[in-house]
Amino acid sequence: MAGSSPHDDATARALATVVETSPLPGWLKRDLATLDKLMPQAIVALIQWPEGGEGRIIHANPATLDLLKEIGASPDTPLGLLLPPEDLASVRAMIADQAPLASKDPAHAFNLPISMHIVSPGKSVPQWRFLGWVQRPQPTDGKLSTGRSGALLGARDGAADAAPYLLLIGRAIPLSDEELRFRRIADQAVEGIIVHRDDRVLYANQRIIEMLGFSCINELLKSAGKVSQWVHPDDRERAADNIRARLAGEEAERDYEFRLLSRTGRTLWVNCRAGTIEWDGEPAVVATLFDITDKKQADEALQESEQLFRNVFAISPDIITLTRLETGEYRYVNEAFLNAFGFREDEVIGRTSFDLGIWRTRKEREKLIAELGRKGAIKELELKVRRKDGTPFVVALTGTRLPFRGEPYLLLMGRDITEKKRQESELRRSKEEAEIANRTKSEFLANISHELRTPLNAIIGFSEVLQQELFGPLGHQRYHEYVGDINDAGRHLLSLINDILDLSRLEAGHMSVTNEPVHLDDIILPAARLVRERASRRGIEFFYDVPPHKIVVEADRLRLKQVLINILNNAVKFTDGDGQVRLWVEETSLPIELREKVDLDIEGDKRIIAIHVQDTGIGMSEEQIAVALTPFGQVDPVLSRRSEGAGLGLPLSKA
């Protein structure tokens, strides 16, 4: 231990002389020599510490030299390498506190107790602690003695100023195994550990340094003089109250959470576990700080998510439930669920659907679980349930598995579809009834049309015999006109009956279409000749153009001819005298805007044949076209009375 080797006066003086690097006042040299004799085992060192500079030893007695040698240092070693950063900061703070007084009064001197650790150069864990006094030397009468505390005593010579040095007088004590063990453990700890007293840092491990955004403790100590300034302003009062209570021996929170402010301004949440410890012979606060920022952020995100979840629960018109997957117990249900089933919330939470009896049969619940097991989720699954009063209804459920606070849950959303199912049933029944009625109508029309065609064919046949006078002259000219009218009326009625039969076949799905290669001339020319005669009788000009080359198309010969005649007859029917009807054919490609409207299998720019019919008639609006394309649709009752027809030509052509 330092101070254990005796030195004679000559050696002590020689050593002391070697390390004096600047002239000292005579009285100070005298007092230092006296101290070396009075306290041979004590640490006596004179420090020169210029303002803003680094402290250096300018006088060391033999005991001090022994200590320096033991820790691998010399008197030339700067004090910054011999003191831990927190102790170095304390000494600097003490000098800063005394500087204003010394600047005002050159004779100002002080004599303060001090405790600081000593480290070997390049090491971080101290091995020794210095306990003693630090003084600003003052001129004395040369009669020195030491008090019980180790302080230097002597009558002051008030005629001279105090010397601008620091005099350390005390003893060096090896650190206890307990303190060494604490420092080694604390330096390697993954949590932040800090020891403080009077709002000043006594010790801080590397983790707390990093948490606060510093690279080393020197940066931390230079940046702040007080521990409290790293605490968030909103939490300082609470932290200060706990510290005061703990140091006073009163009851204080052992574990609590608060926020720190790092060097960069980042806010960190920490869990603090604090207690008291004896540090350098006095009580201090030791705090272990766990960074829980990520946990806090996760908790806040979870709280926000849960609040959003509750809001969705509250405002959704659909039934929403959250149940534990393993037990089926309800964790959350919304107002829509309570209203639909007729329960209160306290009757539902913590109970299962079986407890509440909401399933009409056990198979309904088993159906839900089976679907969930196969797909991991369900969508629009229809299940039969019942209310609290036993009223049955049907729900459509959509759900999925959901992790919630570390447990598997089942989230279900659904709605009451009882009314929808009733409407679907009624619609299905109405459709079936309509189909039956339609089939009955079609069968009736087919039967009655067949019964009508037989006598009509006889009427038409006999009228033709009379027109041709095969069995002799009719006589009066009026008879020829009447027979012609009978024939025309019969043919018109037969055409109408044929149209009704075709419509009945279409509605019954019995209309067959057989496509084959067809020369377009074989369709257009007969239809044009048939319509041209009728147009001529009404004074309408009829023009038709056919390409000079043969065009072959894939079509049903009979149906295509029927469609073309229907459209041409319609054009002639609604065109007044002196009007025009024109028919022409061209090869083209279907315009893009029409491809979605026409149900044809056309790829790319494949050519198609377009048959155009144009007239100078009265025309129709979009709304009138829609009416004209419906069976028996008549656009204008006045026109329908003026023009013959039952309104079946265009619908059959479109079909």
Polypeptide structure, described:
The chain has 655 residues and is α+β, with helices and mostly antiparallel strands. It contains 21 helices and 22 strands. Strands 2-1-7-4-3 form a five-stranded antiparallel β-sheet. Helix 14 runs antiparallel to helix 15 (477-508) and helix 16 runs parallel beside helix 17. The protein starts with 8 loop residues before the first helix and ends with a helix.
Strand order of the largest sheet: 2-1-7-4-3
**What is the assembly state of the chains in this entry?**
single chain
Mean pLDDT: 78
So what's the overall shape?
A: elongated
- Distance between the terminal alpha carbons, to the nearest Å? 117 Å
If helices are DSSP runs of H or I spanning 4 or more residues, what is the number of helices?
Answer: 21
Count all strands and give the number: 22
Furnish the topology, listing elements before pairings.
Layout: H1 9-19, H2 26-38, E1 43-48, E2 56-60, H3 62-70, H4 85-104, E3 111-118, E4 128-135, E5 145-146, E6 152-153, E7 166-174, H5 177-188, E8 192-197, E9 200-204, H6 206-211, H7 217-223, H8 236-247, E10 255-261, E11 267-279, E12 282-291, H9 293-315, E13 319-324, E14 330-333, H10 335-341, H11 345-348, H12 353-356, H13 362-375, E15 377-386, E16 392-404, E17 407-416, H14 418-468, H15 477-508, E18 516-519, H16 521-537, E19 541-545, E20 552-555, H17 557-573, E21 580-588, H18 592-595, E22 608-615, H19 622-628, H20 637-642, H21 649-654
Helix pairs in contact: 14-15, 16-17
Question: What are the key terms here?
Answer:
655 residues; five-stranded antiparallel sheet; 43% helix; alpha+beta; 21 helices
